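Quick one: structure tokens for this chain, please?
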Amino acid sequence: MPHDSRKRGVLEAAEDLLPPEPEVVRSGKRPGALVGGTVLLALRALGGPLWMLGFLRQWPALRTEFDLDAETSQVVLGIILGAVGLWTLVLLVFGIGLWRGSNTARMMVQAWTALSITSAAIAYFAGDDGITVRATLLTLALDILLLLALSSRPARAWTRGKSRRWAKLEPLPPAGG
């Protein structure tokens, strides 16, 4: 049977299948996807203080419902508000890292958003929790948009910058030279 040159071979080198990433020199100009991802992360962090305000409005009813005394009530409220405040601070630190071009911050935010999206899907399909406009829909939408923005090729290339020796498959320079 004659060989048809229009068909692709069974075995191809990875270099032929995956186009090389464009060389990106880290200038002051950030890609739009990275800027958008940082803004989305800031919006996600803003949700923490807004949630705290809503929670504080509901706290007297919750304290009565769970029959908490004054001392226990203060401890529980402190733990909840401290945890939300800490989470907001972590998100803001990741946002600063993204803005400065940290690939580690980009990867950590992507991992967190993937876990958040997965847990929302599992809760929905298990029937435990519905997706509501007030609670889940906004955070889920922000997480999906954030994941899409930070996984874009320009955002990935810009955060990697010049430290992409492994992608070029270049040997390390000699230690003495």
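The chain has one domain: 31-158.
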